[in-house]
Amino acid sequence: MFEQKNSEALSADSLILDKQVLVASLDDIRKTYFMGSLSVEVLHGISLDFYAGDYISIMGPSGCGKSTLMNILGCLDQPTAGKYFLGDEDTSEMEDDELSSIRGARLGFIFQSYNLIQQLNVLENIEMPLFYQGYSESDSHEIAMGLASRVGLDDRVDHKPFELSGGQQQRVAIARALAVDPLIILADEPTGNLDSKSGAEILKLFDELHDQGKTLIMVTHSDELAERSQRWVRLRDGLVESDDRRNS
Amino acid sequence: MTDAILESPTPSAVLTPGQSGAKHAESLFGLNLIRLKKITQVGIKSIYSHGLRSLLTVLGIVIGVAAVIAMLAVSEGASFEAQQQFRDLGASNILLKSVKPAEVEESSSRGFGPPQAIIYGITNADVITIQESIPGISNVIASRIVKKNVWNLGISINTDVVGTTVDYPISRNYQLRAGRFFSESEMRDHANVVVLSDEVADVLFPIDNPLGQSIKIDSDYYNIVGIMESEGFSNLGQNQAGSSNSAPSRIFIPFTASKSRFGETTTRQTAGGMESETVELHEAIIQVESQAAVIQVGEIIDQILRRRHKDVDYEIEVPLALLRQAEESALRDQIVAGAIAGISLLVGGIGIMNIMLASVTERTREIGIRRALGAKKRDIIAQFLIEAVILSGVGGLIGVVLGIIIPFIISALWGMTTIVTPTAPILAFSISALIGVVFGLYPSVRAADMDPVEALRHE
Ligand SMILES: Nc1ncnc2c1ncn2[C@@H]1O[C@H](COP(=O)(O)OP(=O)(O)O)[C@@H](O)[C@H]1O
Ligand SMILES: [Mg+2]
User: Fold this and answer.
1) Which ligand has the nearest atom to the CA of A192?
2) Rounded CA gap, B176 and B179, in Å?
3) Per mean pLDDT, which of A1-5, B5-9, B127-131 is the most reliable?
4) Looking at ligand 1, which atom is closest to the CA of residue A61?
5) Residue A242, φ and ψ in degrees, nearest 5
6) Does B46 sit within 8 Å of A100, measured CB to CB?
7) Which domains does chain A possess?
C-alpha cells in the first residue's frame, strides 16, 4: 500500500538525497555458503546506498537473504564478492581486528532474540560495548545509566535479563546498541519475538531515534512496522526486488 | 517512555578515523588494566557460579601441588636429619655397636628353661685386631654402657652410664659446659669421677651447681668433675641391655671404673627366669685419619668382624656413608616428587582444559554477542585464559596450603623431621598457574576463532 505513495514521491526525494551523506554502500555484493562440496549463492549481487539519518526497512520472504545481508552490513560476515564501504572505508579488505573495532565503534545491533548476556545485569549489559571501546568505568556507568532511563528501565538496572519481559529485554538491547553512539543501528526482526504492545513500544523508540537523526536499518516481516520507516527495500531470492522511498 | 533526548540530535554522519577505536590508551598487549580487572571479575563470577564443578576441576592441581610440597618437605627433613647425624657422629668416624643377636632375643623372650647366659658383642680383641690390621686408624674410643639408677640424695634418674676413655668428647665433637672431662690418671686409677650430661644435671641438681658435688650409683659415690653439653641427636646406646629409654641422657665415667665397679655381666629378671648378658664393649668409635678412606675402612672392618663373629651381634655405622645414602635418597625423592608433580599437574591441566572446552561450548552465544559488540579475538582469548589461570591458581593456592599443613601432620604423627623450604610452594604455585595458561590456551583460542555469526545463532 505504501508503494504507491512512494512512487509519486521519487523525483522530489532525489533532491534531498543529493545533500545527504553516504554512510554505507554495497556494491554488487555476493554471498555464497559452502557446505562441504555443496555451495549455495544466497546473495546474487546487491547494490544499495544508505544515507545518514535514513530509516530503512528490509523486507522479503523468509530465506531470501535478509539476515545474510544484515550480517554483512554489520561486519559480522564478509561477502564472497563485491565491495562494502562503511563511510569511506572498504571493509572487504579489513582484518578481523579492524572489523571488531568497526562493529564496536560504529555499529549497533538489535537482534530478534535480544541476545543479552544472562549472567550480567541490565546496566552491565548496556556497558558491554563501552568496555570493549576502553571507556573508563565512571564514563560507561554514566552513559549506561542515561540510556537505561532513556528506554524507561532506570528502575531495573540491577535486574538480570531473565527477570525482565521480552519487551523490556529488547529495550535493554536498544540501549546497548546506542551506547557507543553508532553510525548505523542494525535491527534484524526486532519485534519478531514480541507481542504487539511490546512491539509498538519498540517501534516508538525507533521513531524517536529516527527523529534524533540516527540511521536505522531494520529487517521486518510486518508491514505495520515497515510503514513507519522512510525507505523500503524488498529482496527476493537474493536480489533487490524494489527500493522505494517515502515522500517526506 | 520518556521524551527526553539523550544525545544531541546532530547525526553522527561524518566518519573520522578517530571516532572508532579506544578512547583511552591501551597497554599490556592491548589490554588495559580496567579491562583486565573487568575480565577477571567476569572470570571469578563464572567460576563461582559453577562452584562444585570448578572445585572438582582443580582437584588434580590441588593434589599435585600438595603432594609435591609435602614430599619435598619430608625429603628435605630426612636429608636435614642425615646431615645432623653426620655432624653429630663425625665425618671421619666409624661407629661399632654391640647388638643382641636376633635368635637370642627370640628365645629369651619366650622365657622358658634354665637361666640364660648370653655373651655377645664387640670385644677388646676385635678392636685390637682392627687397629693392628688396618693402617690409617688414628684412635679407637671404646665404651661400656650400663643402665643404672643414679642418685643425688632423694632424687634419682635412670640413665646410661657410659664408661669411656678421655678422648670421647673430642671424637664426638662434644663441648663441656662446665668443669672438665676425666683425665688419663683418673683413668689409670679407676677413679670414681663422673661427667654429667646437661639433662641429667638438670634433673639431679635442679637448684645448686653440681660441680664438686657427688652422685651415688649402686653403693658407690662419684665426684662430679664436669657437665657435658646436651648431646642432641644420637641413636647410640639404645640397644643396651635393659635399655628401653632412648632419651639421650647419659653420664660418663672412666672405662676402667665402669669395668671394675659393674663388671661385664648384667643380670636381669625376665618373665620366665633369670637372664644374664655379658658384653665386653657396647660401642667403639674408630677414628680414621683421612676422610677419603673412611668408607673403605668401614668395609674392611665389616669383613674382619664377620670372620670373627658367627652371630651378627654388632652394627657398623659409617656416618659419611649414611650421608651419601641420604643424599641419594633425597635425590630419588626429588625425582619421584617431580614425577608425581608432572603426572598430577598433567591430569589437572587436562581437567582444566576439559572444563574450559565445556565452558566455551556453553557460552558460544555469549562469545558471539561479545564479538558483535566489538570484542577482538584477543579479548575473548584473554577472558577464557584468565578464567583458566584463576582456576588453576586457586587450585594451586589450596594445594600450597595443604602442602604446608600436611608436613606438620606427618611430623606430629610419625615424629619425622619435615622442612618446607620457600622454594617448593613458590615453584609449585607458579607451575600450577602456568598449567592454567598452557591448558587454557587451546579452549581460549577455539572460543576466539568461532565465527561470530555461527556463535550468535548457537542455541
Ligand atoms: N551459515 C549458512 N550456511 C548455509 N546456508 C545458509 C547459512 N545461513 C543462511 N543460509 C541460507 O541462506 C539463505 C538465506 O538465509 P537468511 O539470510 O537467514 O534468510 P532470511 O533472513 O531472509 O530469512 C537460506 O536459504 C538459508 O538456508
Ligand atoms: Mg532472518
Assistant:
1) 2
2) 7
3) B127-131
4) 22
5) -150, 155
6) no
7) 2-243 (3.40.50.300)
SS3 A216: strand
pLDDT tops 90 at residue B178: no
Ramachandran angles phi, psi of A90, nearest 5°: -85, 110
Task: Tell me what pLDDT residue A10 has.
Answer: 42
**Structure-derived torsion over alpha carbons of residues B238, B243, B246, B248, reported in degrees to the nearest 10:** -90
B342 φ/ψ angles, rounded to the nearest 5 degrees:
-60, -50
Quote the strand ranges of B324-448, DSSP E: none
* Length of chain A (residues): 248
Check pocket membership of A64 for ligand 1, CB cut-off 6 A. yes
Nearest to A230 by CA among A49, A15, A54, A18: A54
- Identify the three-state secondary structure at position A86: strand
State pTM to two decimals.
0.71
Is residue A174 within 8 Å of residue A183, measured between CB atoms? no
- Per-residue cell: B90: 663425625
pLDDT tens digits for B212-261? 889 999 889 999 999 988 654 343 333 333 333 334 578 899 999 888 88
Nearest one of A22, A1, A9, A51 to A246, comparing CA atoms: A9
- Sequence-distant (6+) residues with CB within 8 A of B218 are B148, B261, B262
Residue partners of B76: CB distance under 8 A and separation at least 6: B330, B418, B419, B420, B421, B424
Which residue of chain A has the CA closest to B449? A96
Write the pLDDT tens digit of every residue in A69-101.
999 999 999 999 999 999 888 998 899 999 999
User: What is the distance in angstroms between the Cα of B386 and the nearest Cα belonging to chain A?
Assistant: 16
Interface predicted TM-score (ipTM): 0.91
- The residues near A38 (Cβ < 8 Å, ≥ 6 apart) are none
Cross-chain residue pair B11–A96, CB shorter than 8 Å: no
In Å, how far are B25, B124, B284, B409 from B121, measured between CA atoms?
84, 10, 11, 39
The set of residues, in sequence order, having a beta carbon less than 8 Å from that of A104 and lying 6+ positions away, is: A129, A132, A133, A180, B20, B373, B374, B375
- Cell 573487568 locates to B38
| Residues of A (90-129) whose Cβ lies below 8 Å from B | 96-97, 100-106, 109, 111, 115-119, 128-129
Sign of torsion, CA B237 B241 B245 B250? negative
> For B115, which DSSP code?
P
Q: Which residues pair with B266 in a beta bridge?
A: B277
| Contact criterion met (CB below 8 Å) for A45 and A29 | yes
In a 3-state reduction of DSSP, which class is residue B307?
helix
